UniProtKB/TrEMBL annotation:
Record's protein name: MORN5 protein
InterPro entries for this protein: Morn5
Keyword Ligase belongs to the record: no
Keyword Cell membrane assigned: no
Compartments, as annotated in UniProt: Cell projection, Cilium, Flagellum
Listed Gene3D superfamilies: Histone H3 K4-specific methyltransferase SET7/9 N-terminal domain
Lineage: Eukaryota, Metazoa, Chordata, Craniata, Vertebrata
Length: 157
C-alpha cells in the first residue's frame, strides 16, 4: 500500500498531495479541486481532523466567522479585496470580467449549460455532467443567460 508523501489523482479530477499511510490520507495533505481552490487538512486514517477550505479566488472559508455574502454584506470577494467599480458598470459575478456565455446557453457557476442538450461543460468546454430535471429547472430560473446580459461595458457617447 502507498506510504510516505505522495500524489493521488481521483477520477473526478480532484488531486490529493500529501502524506499517506497504509493507503490512506494520513498527516498533512491537500485536496486540489479541478476548478481551483482546495481543502488543506491534517488527516487521520483517511478522515480530516483539522482543515481549511479555500475557494479558487483565494477566499478562505471560516465556519465560525463566515460573513461573506450574508444578509448584511452582498459584495463579491473581488469587490471586498479591490473595491467597487465606478457607477454604471455592473459586476455580475465574482469573476470579473465574467466569461462570455455561448449563444443559447446559461452560466451555471461551474460552467455553461445548454438547455437543448441538457449538458453542463466547464469554462474550457470540457464535459462535466448531464443535468437532471431539478438542476435544469434551477438553471433556467436563476442563472445568467447569454441573450440577457451585455458582456462588456460600453461608455455612453
Amino acid at each position: 500500500r502507498m506510504e510516505g508523501f505522495g500524489y493521488y489523482a481521483l477520477p473526478t479530477g480532484t488531486e490529493y498531495r500529501g502524506s499517506l499511510w497504509d493507503g490512506m490520507f494520513h498527516g498533512p495533505g491537500e485536496l486540489l479541486l479541478p476548478g481551483g481552490g482546495g481543502y488543506r487538512a491534517r488527516w487521520v486514517r483517511g478522515a480530516p481532523t483539522q482543515g481549511k477550505f479555500t475557494f479558487a479566488d483565494g477566499l478562505e472559508y471560516d465556519e465560525e466567522k463566515w460573513h461573506y455574502c450574508d444578509g448584511y454584506d452582498r459584495r463579491f470577494y473581488t469587490e471586498i479585496c479591490s473595491g467597487f467599480k465606478p457607477p454604471g458598470i455592473p459586476q455580475l459575478k465574482n469573476l470579473d470580467p465574467p466569461k462570455i456565455i455561448p449563444e443559447g446557453c446559461y452560466d451555471c457557476g461551474d460552467g455553461f449549460y445548454n438547455p437543448e442538450t441538457r449538458v453542463v461543460v466547464d469554462y474550457k468546454h470540457k464535459f462535466l455532467r448531464n443535468a437532471d430535471n431539478d438542476e435544469h429547472e434551477w438553471i433556467l430560473r436563476t442563472c445568467r443567460k447569454a441573450w440577457d446580459v451585455t458582456t462588456e461595458h460600453k461608455p455612453k457617447p
